[in-house]
Specification:
single chain, mainly beta, Immunoglobulin-like, 5-stranded mixed β-sheet, 4-stranded antiparallel β-sheet, 5 helices, 36% strand, elongated, disordered N terminus, membrane, LD_TPept_cat_dom, palmitate, peptidoglycan synthesis, acyltransferase
Length: 417
């Protein structure tokens, strides 16, 4: 059909040109003196022939050619009018890779299948055709937003995690945020318990979100981050457009009484076990307050020099390479952990540590019958360990995931919304 259309167009052009020559002869002009209008008539005939072979398909591509700072989620798209998409090829020449994408079932649109890379130049070529099979072509080259001009929000907890009732949603940004209201508004947290969730900015790089009281047990929490294209600060935009979720498990809150040297482990309102402990000594007492387990390590090295406990030679006052069943309670180095180097008689009778809470354990972390091993196995990230009756001050709310040590009024006051 395409060749037939072209022949018809050429025949029409030939007939038109024949008429032009006849009119010229009748006017009495010579062979080398064509009439004034003959050139115009010939140009229109040429255009008629060309139009007969031009596709009516109109391709549109987002973004514009040579665009910079393009978002990496939904900023790239192809569409066609008066035709269908035949082929879309997107490449990242610097990476030497092709980008997978999908043409819609009706062949009218195309989008990449996955998130693009930041700071990368992409090339896009498109072929479409109209109902007569005539082809149309378009191309673009553009560069995505660079790491220097974009921010990332790293989140806790992990997607799909099951956590304790004290786990907040904590976002740490790799660049300072000045438009806090816009960024906080782009974070949506929904809880199956119906609890209201409010954000609190601890700094221009940290936003935590939590309900007024601990999460209700067995709550499903979903979080969406709509940062893509939002300007967090002057010239620095977000690129994340994603969602994650987590489950709040059973409620477990353990109370360490530094005065009685005991820890009561309460699960869903019932006492599960009371464990003898050894907290911080009088010289190095343990912080008071509610502390959330943020890390679990079967074994870890603890060196006093890393947290400021050094001797006259600048060496750590202690350096234990294999501390068993350690769980972090603060950023500054407070742990609740197993202790195999102290005498059994210490636990339940005296406080001897440099600020951590110690439980009786064995070297090698291989005895499941010790208190240290039992508590480690029974604990989740997000469980709460509350210390009372210690001679030290209350832990600061931003030292770890410990925003519970702040009144609800003060917490709300830290929101930008």
């Amino acid at each position: 059909m395409r060749d037939g259309m072209r022949r018809k167009g050429l025949m029409a052009a030939a007939a038109l040109l024949s008429g032009v020559l006849t009119l010229t002869a009748c006017s009495g002009g010579g062979d080398d003196e064509p009439s004034e209008g003959s050139g115009s008539e010939q140009s229109e005939a040429d255009r008629a022939a060309e139009d007969a072979d031009t596709s009516t398909a109109v391709i549109s591509i987002t973004p514009d050619d040579a665009a910079e700072g393009v978002g990496i989620n939904d900023d790239v798209a192809v569409a066609v009018e008066d035709g269908v998409l035949d082929e879309v090829v997107m490449t990242a020449p610097e990476l030497g890779t092709d980008v997978a994408g999908t043409i819609s079932d009706d062949q009218l649109t195309w989008q990449p299948d996955a998130q693009l890379e930041r700071g990368t130049r992409y090339q896009l070529t498109v072929q479409a055709s109209d109902s007569e099979g005539r082809e149309a072509h378009e191309s673009r080259a553009f560069t995505t937003v660079s790491p220097d001009n974009s921010f990332t929000g790293y989140f806790t907890p992990e997607d799909g995690a099951t956590v304790g009732v004290g786990m907040p949603v904590s976002l740490n940004f790799d660049k300072p945020i000045t438009d806090r209201a816009a960024i906080e508004a782009a974070v949506e947290v929904n809880a199956s318990s119906g609890q209201e969730v409010v954000g609190h900015w601890f700094s221009d790089t940290r936003l935590d979100l939590r309900p007024q009281d601990y999460w209700q047990a067995n709550t499903e929490v979903s979080v969406s981050l709509g940062f893509d294209g939002l300007e967090g600060s002057d010239g620095v935009v977000g690129w994340q457009d994603r969602a994650f979720s987590f489950t709040v498990g059973r409620s477990q809150i353990s109370t360490v009484d530094a005065e009685s040297y005991q820890m009561e482990v309460v699960r869903d309102g019932e006492t599960l076990r009371t464990i003898p402990i050894s907290a911080g000594s009088e010289e190095n007492p343990t912080y008071n307050g509610a502390m959330v387990i943020s890390e679990k390590l079967v074994e870890t090295r603890m060196n006093g020099a890393t947290v400021g406990f050094t001797d006259d030679d600048g060496e750590g006052e202690y350096d234990i390479p294999d501390v068993p069943h350690a769980m972090r309670l603060s950023t500054s180095g407070t742990f609740i952990h197993g202790n195999y180097w102290a005498a059994d008689s210490v636990f339940g009778s005296t406080n001897t540590s440099h600020g951590c809470v110690g439980l009786n354990d064995t070297q090698g972390a291989d005895d499941p019958d010790t208190d240290g091993a039992w508590f480690f196995e029974e604990s989740l990230l997000g469980d709460v360990v509350t210390v009372i009756n210690s001679p030290d001050r209350e832990i600061q709310p931003d030292n770890g995931l410990n925003g519970w040590n702040m009144s609800w009024t003060d917490w709300q006051a830290g929101s930008a919304l």
